[in-house]
Design brief:
Mean pLDDT: 90
CATH topology: Leucine-rich repeat, LRR (right-handed beta-alpha superhelix)
Strand order of the largest sheet: 1-2-3-4-5-6
Number of helices: 3
CATH class: Alpha Beta
Structural class: alpha/beta
Largest sheet: 6 strands, mixed
Shape: elongated
Keywords: Cytoplasm, Leucine-rich repeat, Repeat
Number of domains: 1
Pfam families: LRR_9
Subcellular location: Cytoplasm
Main location: cytoplasm
Distance between the termini: 71 Å
Strand content: 5-15%
GO cellular component, one term: cytoplasm
CATH architecture: Alpha-Beta Horseshoe
Length: 174
């Protein structure tokens, strides 16, 4: 019987599923991997995520792929932005409500592949264009390659829909 994880801390006592390749472990017993697949659980937040990842992985700073698809996440937790080597992030099939949540991911310099389909935000007008505007470095979005035409459409959409921020003037500048 497969037990679904309701919290990130539940991972500590779980044995990882076996894949095609055997799991490598360090001398300290921690996993030596660059991917973490937490898909198909009932996670609704990422409380203690950094601490748990540090307990489980020998080199958490090398984490390049996180799969959190098919959980109950309602937002993009800022903890994900602390993994600067992250290049693949799967968040499809969750409950993310606000399109603006995507903005948090703009600080990830290596993010190239992102999935968000199957979240309520997918129904927002301009969903694909907004994501491509906010994350111009991604090359695959919702398992579909990002084309030059997509980039052009996103740029036009941005000019029509996103107002440039006006610089704030200091009130005591006079």
């Amino acid at each position: 019987m497969v037990e679904f994880q309701a919290s990130v801390t539940d991972m500590i006592n779980e044995e990882p599923r076996t894949g095609l390749r055997p799991l490598k472990r360090s001398k300290s017993g921690k996993s030596v991997t660059q991917s973490l697949w937490l898909n198909n659980n009932v996670l609704n937040d990422l409380r203690d995520f950094s601490q748990v990842v540090s307990q489980l992985l020998e080199y958490p700073e090398n984490l390049a792929w996180i799969d959190l698809s098919f959980n109950d996440l309602t937002s993009i937790d800022p903890v994900l932005t602390t993994f600067f080597n992250l290049s693949v992030l799967y968040l499809h099939g969750n409950s993310i409500q606000r399109l603006g949540e995507v903005n948090k991911l703009a600080v990830l310099p290596r993010l190239r592949s992102l999935t968000l389909h199957g979240n309520p935000i997918e129904e927002e007008k301009g969903y694909r264009q907004y994501v491509l505007c906010m994350l111009p470095r991604i090359t695959t979005f919702d398992f579909s390659g990002v084309t030059k035409a997509d980039r052009t459409t996103a740029e036009v959409w941005k000019r029509m829909n996103i107002k440039p921020r006006k610089p704030r003037l200091k009130q005591n500048a006079l």
